[in-house]
Amino acid sequence: MKAVALSGSANQAVESRGVRAGFLVMTAALPMLLAIGAAAQTAAPSGNVQDGRRAFASHNCSTCHGAEGQGATGPRIVPPASAFSDFVRSVRQPTGVMPAVTAQAAPDSDLANIYAFLGSIERAPQAPISLASANAQNGKRIYTSYGCYQCHGREGQGSTQTAGPRIGPPAISVSAFASAMRQPTNEMPPYTSKVVSDSDIADMYVFLQSIPIPPPARSIPLLNQ
Predict the structure, then answer these.
(1) Can you spell out the DSSP letters for 109-172?
(2) What is the CATH number of the domain that holds 72?
(3) I want to staple 153 with a disulfide (CB 3.0 to 4.6 A). Which of 31, 93, 103, 157 is the partner?
(4) The overall pTM is greater than 0.70
(5) Which domain range does residue 165 map to?
(6) How far is the C-alpha of 154 from the C-alpha of 144, rounded, in Å?
(7) Digit-coded pLDDT (tens) for 22-80
């Protein structure tokens, strides 16, 4: 069979069609490649739970977070609420008072094991807090003795100087109030059940509930001073 020679314009047309076809194939495959890359970034490597338990203790994580991540002077971290990549970032570049842990001090393999250990711990359901026998006077005493007023004011009215928000009267349920104390998301230190019991929280809650809602600001500026 005799080969047919193509003209320059025909060659260009063939090459152009080939480039377009290749571009279409790459475009179609791009979402799949991005998804694979994202999964590779967020997926946790397979860690060893028992090694993670030992690493959690040897790196002194339990000192602040409790023996099983239940929280102590530091917040509760069980189960991990973030992807492994975010977990590593929070250890390497923490935003609170926790010191940064370098890769030399704790390699990624240790963090993978710790992540697996924390993920293996089942979070025990918390019993609902009853307000049936709560005492507002005792709640006021506890509120003062624990120094809550230093950030939130004597009656939970909040403070612009400390940036402590208004908490009286509470605009949330007692369960949410307890969670905010046990696992705060701001600079407030966590108050574990070893420090403040559920009954103490109930007493403080009803004390704050007893505080009347302030009247709206008056329209006369002199009366607002």
Answers:
(1) HHHHHHHHHHHHSPPPPPPPPP-TT--HHHHHHHHHHTTTHHHH-TTS--BTTTTBPP-SS-SS
(2) 1.10.760.10
(3) 157
(4) no
(5) 136-209
(6) 8
(7) 444 444 444 444 444 444 444 557 889 999 999 998 999 988 888 888 777 777 788 88
Domain contains 69: yes
Residue identified by tokens 């607002």 is 224
Cα dihedral 172, 94, 74, 140, rounded to 10, equals -40
Structure tokens at 219: 């329209």
Cβ neighbours of residue 139 closer than 8 Å, sequence gap 6 or more: 200, 202, 203, 204, 205, 206, 207, 208
Q: What share of the chain is helix, strand, coil (3-state, %, to 5)?
A: 50, 0, 50
Q: Are 118 and 79 in contact (CB under 8 A)?
A: yes
Residues 204 and 145 in one domain: yes
* 40 phi/psi in degrees, rounded to 5: -65, -30
For residue 56, with 0-12 CB atoms within 10 Å meaning exposed, 13-18 middle and 19 or more buried, which class applies? buried
